[in-house]
Amino acid sequence: MDSRLEELILSMQVGEVKKLYDEVGYEVFSHELLSIAFSNEILSNYVVLVHLLHEDESPELHDLAFHVLTHPLCHIEGAYASSLMHAKKSLDVNHSIDVRSLENLLFLNTVPEKNHQ
Fold first, then answer.
1. How far apart, in whole angstroms, are the C-alpha atoms of residue 71 and residue 49?
2. SS3 for the chain, per residue?
3. In whole angstroms, what is the distance from residue 60 CA to residue 77 CA?
4. What is the pTM of this model?
5. What is the pLDDT of residues 58-67, one digit of tens each?
6. Are 45 and 72 in contact (CB under 8 A)?
7. Of 26, 43, 57, 92, which alpha carbon lies 20 to 30 A from 100's?
8. Rounded to whole angstroms, how far apart are CA atoms 68 and 105?
């Protein structure tokens, strides 16, 4: 699936990405997307996630966006600041204290470049 997903992302076929996401589920999709993002380091990986979030805002998708921004795309200016927004939105959308989202906030506290706050 990973080459198919990458092809869909690179050609910005977001509707097809959404269908694939619905078909394979979050776990498989997130693993594949992170793998692709580490491989190609292209911003389109994040843009597709933003589109998915507009259609179905969930804590899981915010967490995935956080991880894409803080790991494979961390070299992009503003990535940490944007990831902070996703960590906070994950908590808001979940309407409760979620350990995974709190860990994301703690991770950002350890980043030397603290201008993201």
1. 15
2. CHHHHHHHHHCCCHHHHHHHHHHHCHHHHHHHHHHHHHHHCCCHHHHHHHHHHHHCCCHHHHHHHHHHHHCCCCCCCCHHHHHHHHHHHHHHHHCCCCHHHHHHHHHHHHCCCHHHC
3. 24
4. 0.87
5. 999 999 999 9
6. yes
7. 43
8. 15
Give 116's pLDDT tier (boundaries 50, 70, 90): very low
Identity of the residue numbered 7: E
Rounded Cα gap, residues 108 and 111, in angstroms: 5
What is the rounded CA–CA span in Å between residue 49 and residue 83? Answer: 12
Give the span between the Cα atoms of 79 and 94, in whole angstroms: 22
Position 1 scores a pLDDT of 67
Output the six-digit token pair for 27. Answer: 């776990």
| CB 90, CB 99: distance < 8 Å | no
Distances in whole angstroms, Cα of residue 114 to Cα of each of 64, 99, 100, 104, 107:
21, 22, 20, 14, 11
Burial of 13 (0-12, 13-18, 19+ CB in 10 A): middle
